[in-house]
Amino acid sequence: MAEAAAHSVHSDPRSEAPPPADFQLRPLQIAIKADTNRFKVACIHRRFGKTVLAIDWLKDEILNCPLPEPRGYFVFPFAKQGEEIAWDFLRARRPASSNGTKR
User: Fold this and answer.
1) Cα–Cα distances in Å, from 87 out to 8, 13, 51, 54, 93?
2) Residue 15 exposure: Cα atoms within 13 Å on the Cβ side
3) Fewer CB near the terminus (10 Å): N or C of the chain?
4) Residue 63 and residue 98: Cα distance in Å, rounded?
């Protein structure tokens, strides 16, 4: 019983599938991303798309980095959160030139 209760914390029945690969940012997400300030504070609701914005931002920074093999990190409080929240979306947003194999 306790195991089922612990599992229900991680699986939200209201959660949706990750956005498709051709997903476009909303106007307010674009405004936050375009802001040139080093630090940004945004008071936004829970369904705004903060994770989507962060992943899109990370993707653009990596693809536009002049270094030969850039790396980026997306940090969550717990590894399981990263897997459940962002991993499918990261895979869907993978550049077309990536074949998904390890080097």
Assistant:
1) 19, 18, 11, 13, 10
2) 12
3) C
4) 12
What's this model's pTM, rounded to 2 decimal places? 0.63
Q: Which run of H or E residues covers position 53?
A: helix 50-63
Provide φ and ψ at 22, rounded to 5°.
-95, 20
Instruction: Tell me the DSSP string of 58-98.
Output: HHHHHHT--SSS-------SSHHHHHHHTHHHHHHT--TT-
pLDDT tens figures, 46-93: 889 888 888 888 888 888 999 999 988 888 888 888 887 777 777 776
- The neighbour count for residue 4, using CB atoms within 10 Å, is 7
What gap in Å lies between CA 93 and CA 6, rounded to an integer? 30
Structure token digits, residue 3: 């195991």
Residue 90 has a pLDDT of: 73
pLDDT of residue 67: 93
